């Protein structure tokens, strides 16, 4: 290419891709996983400075397993099994790049932290972790778990329970659970993990099943069907009519009845003659067809019917 000729657009794009690839793959010197020439020093050396951490760590599952029933030579190293060889760290404790740290402030790359955990905790519930929403958002195992202290009954979580841990990031869902109608999670009958797998799932919302309806009907079996007369929006998705976490309408509905039904049933149906300000409950001429459960006062089998005459979900 001659010096006076303009650089083609595809060449600029290629250069931009190479620069971005270098930025995402290059690791700063201060954030190296561990000193390459470091050697193991043993747990006793670690405890000379970290006595407070030892008091909390001694109550955890990892401490009991590594100290009393190690499965490998690596687990026998206890502290260094996760943090890496500690000779360089012992010589210069203020140098963060000499050992693997499991906090955001320490600077160890998230991939390095998670690789340490995944060496033992892989498969089963973590089968779909690579590529999951949490992994794609650079979530570290230590953002949800605290292996150095027993703060929860199970799972070595950072908070007392699963839901409290999830609330740390999912503030919107926390607010939804405080609405008038909500899933019984605040009452302790469910947790976020009842419906979601935080370690990965084939679905984007990290559902424990392949679809919304399959998840809902695992508890609400009477709504599963198959029905002789199926209601199309119900068959498509439960979320067409219901909120998943909480709603200010009864039964987690996305809108109050009869306006929820009117979103679909608008043309040449008797509801049009009923839905007016005068015949609404509380109006001057209320209609008995709109009292109590509104449209469902008559169309009670709204999720589906197996009655031979149930085409309009009346029975």
Write the layout of secondary structure elements.
Elements (H helix, E strand, L loop, with lengths): L8 H17 L17 H5 L3 H7 L3 H8 L4 H4 L2 H5 L3 H5 L18 H9 L14 H4 L25 H6 L3 H6 L4 E2 L29 H6 L11 E2 L1 H5 L9 E2 L11 H4 L8 H4 L29 E2 L10
Antiparallel strand pairs: 1-3, 2-4
- Mean pLDDT across the residues is 84
- The number of E-state strands comes to 4
Biggest β-sheet, characterized?
2 strands, antiparallel
C-alpha Rg, in Å? 29 Å
Strand proportion, as a percent range, falls in under 5%
Number of helices: 15
Summing up helix and strand content along with how strands pair, one would put the structural category as mainly alpha
What general outline do the C-alpha atoms trace? elongated
**Percent helix:** 25-40%
If strands are numbered along the chain, what order do they take across the biggest sheet? Answer: 1-3
Low-confidence stretches: 1-7, 20-33
What's the quaternary structure here? single chain
Number of separate structural domains: 2
Distance between the termini: 79 Å
The run of helices and strands is HHHHHHHHHHHEHEHEHHE
Summarize this structure as a short list of keywords or feature phrases.
single chain, 315 residues, mainly alpha, 2 domains, two-stranded antiparallel sheet, two-stranded antiparallel ribbon, 4 strands, 3% strand, disordered N terminus
